[in-house]
Specification:
The relative contact order is 0.13. The radius of gyration is 22 Å and the shape is globular. The chain has helices spanning 20-24, 28-47, 125-131, 163-166, 171-183, 222-234, 253-261, 269-272, 274-290, 321-338, 366-369, 373-377, 400-418, 434-450, 481-496; strands at 6-7, 12-13, 55-57, 71-77, 80-85, 91-102, 108-119, 140-143, 146-149, 152-154, 157-160, 188-192, 196-197, 206-209, 212-215, 238-242, 297-301, 343-345, 385-389, 422-427, 454-457, 463-464, 467-468. The strands form seven sheets. The chain has an eight-stranded parallel β-sheet with strand order 18-17-16-12-11-21-20-19. Strands 3-5-4 form a three-stranded antiparallel β-sheet, with no helix packed on it. The protein is an alpha/beta fold and 497 residues long. The longest helix has 20 residues, at 28-47. Bound molecules: 2-acetamido-2-deoxy-beta-D-glucopyranose (NAG) (3 copies). The site of one 2-acetamido-2-deoxy-beta-D-glucopyranose has 6 residues, from helix 10.
């Protein structure tokens, strides 16, 4: 998704300034409605035992802890326990674990977590793994179509949040964002590790003056990302971090080509011009080496949604998926040479390059757009596949839910034949309320039944002291029916493994 974009009055328009939240803040009546809804939910939970999938515990949780009949309270992470179906033969086991949490500054804190994990006699070993407290240390690895962490299966599920480090939020706000995300049952968040600017203003990571670029490691630069990483870590969340953007939001590729080669370049000069490739590699090196030993990061992603064409820049006549496949092979090998600890993926939309035209439409003719999901999965230095799903933006609005089921099924099949994991790392619908939750539930069921490795919705939202984080029409705030659905889905996906 175009992360800096926002939908204010039926229009999507890209923004590059950090103040957009002011323009697009929802009305106070909308805020009051959300507050009322939240109040209604919190109020209700104080009167009755917690229903299935509801929260029953967590570090800062003060609500009802008794689960309804037949349910047991299962810890998902330090911040979130939920009521899950159990049986009368429930047995209790107490598991103690000690984990070391290192912040990105020089302090080291050791915390002890004692948690009670309740499981039934019929629980599989994967479920037992899932209900153990997350380990705070260890790099994610792959094993066939799955991920592992410290030898146990790790299931990626959760959401995107591009905004915590980039929009000037305080540490307290970033912490609340991650507490909200952890409470949704998420294990992974995808965020942005780039921000190209040509004038220093607000938070920025990479400042261009003519053809010279400087990495901003100051308090308004990568130190914001440092804080985001430390907050994710303390909430038991792993991160996917993208290193540039096809879209012009927060700068992206076209800033490189315009600053180095002049305006009017084809978008895909980013992938082929040696000067541009060297400049991008220099930025990649600065970020990747800064966090090379940081195990909160699950994977580096080369670019958000690379394509032959850009937001306002056209593709050259010769660009096709071979160009981006070759670029992805070169850059992923470069990252592995700098940082062998982390996984690497593209961060693309996962277009399928099917030579036979059919009525599944252009996402299946990825060759011309610049993405061939299957060819990219074959690159040795790419550890897993990524794909997105926006049927309503892709001309499938008449048939969006069924089209999405097919899209998930087709990617799961390619995942299986490549024997690498694949994550549907962005998807969304902009209509709100119960219907959206019903439709996401259909897609989540398809993820579960096809064996797809995992999924992240676009996008998480929080409410900071009554003010919502940006909403491009897709944001899911605590209290939204989709939020509750995500809690349910995360538990089900982790249980499936
Ligand atoms: C909400 O406001 C209080 C009082 O100003 C402040 O201490 C707290 O950090 C704020 N919370 C967030 C998440 O910003
Ligand atoms: C892209 O174009 C090149 C050169 O014309 C060609 O060799 C290659 O097969 C094309 N790739 C795809 C996926 O069509
Ligand atoms: C990059 O490519 C598309 C395709 O032209 C362009 O419209 C858009 O602005 C950019 N976005 C994406 C999908 O990454």
């Amino acid at each position: 998704m175009r992360s800096g974009s926002t939908r204010c009055s039926g229009e999507i328009f890209p923004v590059t300034v950090v103040y957009i939240t002011l323009d697009c803040m929802t009305s106070s009546s909308e805020n009051m409605r959300r507050q009322a809804l939240l109040f209604a939910i919190l109020g209700a939970s104080a009167l009755a035992s917690v229903p299935e999938w509801g929260q029953c515990g967590g570090l800062s949780y003060t609500g009802e802890t008794d689960c309804a009949a037949g349910l047991v309270c299962v810890e998902q992470n330090t911040y979130y326990s939920q009521c899950l179906a159990g049986t009368s033969t429930t047995t209790s086991t107490t598991v103690s674990s000690t984990s070391t949490v290192k912040s990105t500054t020089t302090t080291t804190t050791t915390v002890s977590t004692t948690s009670t994990v309740k499981s039934t006699t019929t629980t599989t070993s994967q479920t037992t793994t899932a209900s153990s407290p997350p380990s705070a240390t260890g790099f994610i690895k792959t094993s066939g179509t799955r991920f592992t962490l410290n030898g146990k299966q790790f299931v990626p599920v959760g959401s995107n949040a591009y905004w915590p480090a980039l929009l000037g939020y305080s540490n307290a706000e970033i912490d609340q964002a991650f507490a909200d995300i952890a409470a949704s049952g998420a294990t992974v968040v995808r965020t942005e590790g780039f921000n190209e600017v040509t004038s220093a203003q607000g938070v920025y990571f990479h400042l261009w003056t003519g053809s010279t670029a400087t990495v901003n490691t100051g308090t308004d630069g990568l130190q914001r990302l440092d804080y985001l990483v430390s907050s994710a870590k303390s909430h038991g969340i792993k991160l996917l971090i993208t290193l540039t953007n096809n879209w012009s939001d927060f700068g992206g590729m076209d800033v490189y080509t315009a600053q180095l080669l002049g305006s009017g370049q084809p978008h895909d000069a980013f992938y082929t011009n040696p000067t541009v490739v060297a400049a991008y590699k220099a930025y990649v090196q600065a970020v990747v080496t800064r966090y090379a030993t940081e195990d909160t990061i699950m994977a580096w992603e080369l670019c958000n949604e690379p394509r032959c064409a850009g937001t306002t820049t056209a593709a050259s006549a010769t660009c096709n998926s071979t160009v981006i496949t070759n670029w992805a092979a070169e850059i992923s090998a470069y990252i592995k040479s700098l940082d062998p600890n982390h996984l690497v993926a593209i961060g693309d939309e996962g277009f399928i390059n099917d030579p036979i035209p059919h009525d599944y439409d252009y996402p299946y003719q990825g060759g011309g757009i610049g993405i061939d999901f299957e060819a990219n999965l074959a690159i040795d230095t790419l550890d897993f596949g990524t794909f997105h799903m926006y049927p309503d933006s892709w001309g499938e609005s008449g048939n969006d839910i069924a089209w999405g089921q097919q899209w998930i099924t087709d990617h799961a099949a390619l995942m299986t034949s490549a024997n690498k994991p694949a994550i549907m790392e962005e998807f969304g619908l902009t209509y709100t309320g119960a219907q959206r939750a019903t439709d996401y539930a259909t897609w989540y069921d398809t993820v579960i039944s096809t064996g797809l490795t995992g999924d992240l919705l676009w996008q998480a939202g929080s409410v900071f002291n009554g003010t919502e984080t940006p909403n491009d029409g897709y944001a899911i705030y605590p209290g939204d029916p989709v939020y509750t659905l995500l809690q349910q889905h995360a538990a089900a996906l982790v249980a499936r493994g």
